[in-house]
Amino acid sequence: MDKADESPRSGPAVAKGTVTQRAIERIKAMIAEGLLEPGQRLPTERDLAAQLGISRSSMREAIRALTVLGVVEARHGSGIYVTQLQAGDLLETFGVVADLSRGPRLVELLEVRRILESTATALAAARITPEQLAAVEGHLTAMNATDDPEEILAHDLAFHREIAAAAGNETMAAILEGLSSRTFRARVWRGYREEDAFARTRREHAAIHRALAARDPEAARAAAAAHVGEVEEWLRAQRSAGAPSSAVAPAPVRPAPEGP
Amino acid sequence: MDKADESPRSGPAVAKGTVTQRAIERIKAMIAEGLLEPGQRLPTERDLAAQLGISRSSMREAIRALTVLGVVEARHGSGIYVTQLQAGDLLETFGVVADLSRGPRLVELLEVRRILESTATALAAARITPEQLAAVEGHLTAMNATDDPEEILAHDLAFHREIAAAAGNETMAAILEGLSSRTFRARVWRGYREEDAFARTRREHAAIHRALAARDPEAARAAAAAHVGEVEEWLRAQRSAGAPSSAVAPAPVRPAPEGP
DNA sequence: CACCCCGAGTGGTCCGACCACCTCGGTGAC
DNA sequence: GTCACCGAGGTGGTCGGACCACTCGGGGTG
């Protein structure tokens, strides 16, 4: 783990990948080992490049990589800083997964969300504070008071976000945020509102809120699972049907499971 | 709106971020919109840079960012290709989260894993094939046949990986893989083996295997939740206790800035 | 036909320059 | 003494060019 790594075999060529890749690992290791604390400022790009014996260009690629991963943050004119390494920082990339997932992957993603969301809602039922409950109720009434799909979606997201926060697990909340936000939800909602799903969604949200107000974890879990499962089933059916949506890849669907 | 003018000067630059950031979004959008299929080869770095009107350096940073996100893959001398966008490709970054998480975040991460792992094990109990069950049993016996911690850990990981695969949700399996592998597990195991946890772990794994063989989803869920919860509780107690920092290593590099 | 070699094309690395922005200290007005 | 202003230096952001390492396919060789 020191500078001169003692590879048993394979001579002096310790270069296991590109220089940039090594730089990424080095900086990541510095943070993991505690040499760099959250919020701390890193050396300048030029100094870092000199320390690792690489060019500034390569170091910049490494910095950029760590930036998109949410590990460090570059402030123009000021310096590079380690993020707080909060759940939200590191799990921001989760949204990319949702953005780029299609077909069967979307159903799988929704299944994961159903599992986490139901558990989070159950936890929230036991831990939610009156203030948080009031906020949830506020989003519920606001959602029922308008017909603008975008506004409904915004309050829908906030509704679940508030519940996830009340569950007391920031990591779980961050994952759910990535699974719910962005085009993921928007894509599902498109065409979804063409049916009579609005009333059903409002009913489901009301059921979740009732369970939270009653401090009933099991009811909350069931209500949340049913809510997400509703969308999940709709999406599953959409896939097995003609799937007219352009967002669905024309990839050959293989619905045939193993036989006998 | 996306057809931006090329005039570098003159007024309202719609550029919301850095050029590199815009390039990342552009390429991501191309893939999301289906202009670039999985496995397809992208234009060369030089062409891409010319298309977006930026330098090759900036484009390279964008490519590097998309590479670490698992969206594209660069092959030296050949070209840049869109990955298959499988769950494993995109969720590889999840391991970084586990690597860099410490303190309360570790407990939260383990809680998420407990939720997903228990559900995955329950699903596996209903869906596992005889071949997969045999593989699980193989890792169980191999785990019990040795005292080498590393070998035990390897079979432990494979044990759970096989179960996650049997659950039939690749996305969930990929997330669990990121949550379990790497230094995350190794860090927990170090010092953990100092106690009498080996026998307990073997007993818990045997219970999971029994539930799978009996095709009992509820028993499997309970066994898996107890198994992960065991580690979770140990970690929680470790934190409340003195908890000598495990992140301390002999500083290999201590950059001494040159004096004025 | 099989094999080898080589050159064009690609990503990987490096360099140097310049620009845009932030920070901080000095300076002056009040 | 206080505070607003402002300039210089340092920082990340961008650019263009050059060269290296590697891959791949086509043409020559046996």
TrEMBL record, chains A, B:
<dbReference type="InterPro" id="IPR011711">
    <property type="entry name" value="GntR_C"/>
</dbReference>
<dbReference type="InterPro" id="IPR036390">
    <property type="entry name" value="WH_DNA-bd_sf"/>
</dbReference>
<dbReference type="InterPro" id="IPR000524">
    <property type="entry name" value="Tscrpt_reg_HTH_GntR"/>
</dbReference>
<dbReference type="InterPro" id="IPR036388">
    <property type="entry name" value="WH-like_DNA-bd_sf"/>
</dbReference>
<keyword id="KW-0804">Transcription</keyword>
<dbReference type="Pfam" id="PF00392">
    <property type="entry name" value="GntR"/>
</dbReference>
<dbReference type="GO" id="GO:0003700">
    <property type="term" value="F:DNA-binding transcription factor activity"/>
</dbReference>
<keyword id="KW-0238">DNA-binding</keyword>
<feature type="compositionally biased region" description="Low complexity">
    <location>
        <begin position="239"/>
        <end position="251"/>
    </location>
</feature>
<protein>
    <submittedName>
        <fullName>GntR family transcriptional regulator</fullName>
    </submittedName>
</protein>
<dbReference type="GO" id="GO:0003677">
    <property type="term" value="F:DNA binding"/>
</dbReference>
<dbReference type="InterPro" id="IPR008920">
    <property type="entry name" value="TF_FadR/GntR_C"/>
</dbReference>
<feature type="domain" description="HTH gntR-type">
    <location>
        <begin position="17"/>
        <end position="85"/>
    </location>
</feature>
<dbReference type="Pfam" id="PF07729">
    <property type="entry name" value="FCD"/>
</dbReference>
<feature type="region of interest" description="Disordered">
    <location>
        <begin position="237"/>
        <end position="260"/>
    </location>
</feature>
<keyword id="KW-0805">Transcription regulation</keyword>
